[in-house]
Amino acid sequence: MNALDYVVLVGTLLGIAAYGTWCTRGRSDLRTYLTGAANTGWFTIGVSVMATQASATTFLSTPGQGYQNGLGFVQNYFGAPLALIVIAIVFLPIFRGLNVYTAYEFLGRRFDQKTRLLGTALFLLQRGIGAGLTIYAPAIVLSTVFGWSLHLTIVASGLVVIVYTAVGGSAAVSLTQKFQFAVIAAGMVAAFFVLLAKFPASLSLGDAFTVAGGFGKLKAIDPTPSLVPRYTLWSGLIGGLFLQLSYFGADQSQVQRYLGGASLRESRLGLMFNAIFKIPMQFCILLLGAAIFVFYQFDRPPVFFNQAAWQHAAQGPAGAKLRAIEANYAAAQAEKQKQIDQWLAARHAGDRATAATAHAAVLGAHARGEALRADVKRVLREADPHAPQADTDYVFITFILDHLPHGLIGLLVTVFFAATLNSKAAELNALASATTVDLYRHLVRRDADDARCLAASRWFTVLWGLAAIGFALTVNLAENLIQYANMIASIFYPALLGLFLVAFFQKRVGGTAVFVGALVSLLVTGVLFFVRRAQPDFPVSYLWDNLIGCAACVIISQVIQALLPAIGAEKGTSG
Amino acid sequence: MNPPEIPPPPSDDELPGLPGFRTWRGVYVFVLGVFGLWIALLALLTEKFS
């Protein structure tokens, strides 16, 4: 990064944050502070919902997913349109009808106070961890690549978002998200077109698709009827439906975004905006990763994309081994490039037999290259068991730094930080709201007026922000970031969603039964998470946990509800 | 068990107000149609280039 890049980065981020703070300063009405201005239109809501979900990991990590595994990750979002329609029809009118600040207030009214507190606790736990990851994820990658201090990066980005979220509340979040998302869209589109312009002149767009498809990078849909693969059509539609229902319907960071709509119509249209554009957005980001893969078939990629880790290890005792692997990788890549040229030439000539032979040779050369990449990881692990093994999160940033012009580099790094601020602001706002409404005013100061609650909410924003910074300073991850965030969510969300589904659809079930059901659900998903960590080849993908956990909550609730009269009668007899 | 405090379904007095859509049902059907279209296009892409 040069001076121009830093001017773009700092100027854009601070400019938007200052604008949001200025426009929303002096908000003294609790409802406006917690749910936003009463005149918020559908487009602002739609962008706000989308921006809240699209954190920096979406833009930093997803292209790496596309590069390594192709488009299959898009199936993770297949449940989103269905979930958003269900929420628009069922959840939203009830939340708005009750005029609640948080989704968990509804649980208190429908069931009892312990269920409301359980819902709040599940949300605070899940989102509190999520807020730490939101800030940690881009910081670890960007600080590694640029050589910045990790701690300073975390603290600086955390403090910026704390300031404008605490000052302006929900209105500031929505306002800044709109501008930040515009920057994000501009940056990603610019990156895509510059990437296309960097393809070899002889490579047509059709050839690029052929190359990507030839390596399996365009396999967007996997209809395999199996629970094992992480992403299939079925895990996306069914498991994804439950994951997205939990996220959009039971997570206050999202509920708060669409509760702020000027009317039911504006909120619904904001949700439908996401139902239509969520999948194409994710597709485009993954396609960017697949396009980077194509680019690197004609321009040798690094054997390991986390160059900082590579260089650190290369200076140690493993240096000779790593350099030997790097040389072999360069040779394998050069050989593969020749074979790709032959493959495409045979296709252009209509010679199917030669094309098929050349394609097989290309795949063979690719497999040799991948084996060498695996060797690098093995050597790195032998040299330092704690060294980072995954490098897919570094693919996009490496491409940006090596191949994009200055100015655009600054814009893309701005994209990552803007996305961090987007998500983080909504998370802090939601955490503070739930803490104020569901804990402080409900348990600590029942007589607190709106002015006191507003002040408390500002302080809770600061406290949650500092807690997230603290968590980010201590966390250490090896997984692909975006997948890890979804895995963590799959522990807590099923129980949370189960509470709401029982509330909406099982009118005979009461608070005690659903409370026990949610605890059992949490136990089930927690066990699944830890079993999967112990056995990486566990034959059920984590997306299914959302269905399993939610079903456990609903079924156990019904069973307990059926048993409760018998238990009560027994107690009465024995007493 | 507490009596459920779920408000009745809202009247449809807040219509979509979108050209071509007279009811929310129409909006949802349209969104489902677009979703189906995305799936079909992705399936086509998978089929053509795999």
Order of helices and strands of chain B: H
- What's the β-strand tally of chain B? 0
CATH level 4 superfamily of the largest domain in chain A: Sodium/glucose cotransporter
Shape of chain A: globular
Tell me the number of structural domains of chain A: 2
Quaternary organisation: heterodimer
Considering residues with a beta carbon less than 8 A from a beta carbon on another chain, report the largest interface and each chain's count: A-B, 46 and 30 residues
In round numbers, the mean pLDDT of chain A is 87
How many DSSP helices of chain B?
1
From the helix content, strand content and strand pairing of chain B, which structural class follows?
mainly alpha
- Write the CATH architecture name of the largest domain in chain A: Up-down Bundle
Which residue ranges of chain A are poorly predicted, with pLDDT under 50 across at least 5 consecutive positions?
Answer: none
Please identify the top-level CATH class of the largest domain in chain A: Mainly Alpha
CATH topology name of the largest domain in chain A: Sodium/glucose cotransporter
Mean pLDDT of chain B: 82
- What's the Cα radius of gyration of chain A? 25 Å
Q: What percent of residues of chain B are in strands?
A: under 5%
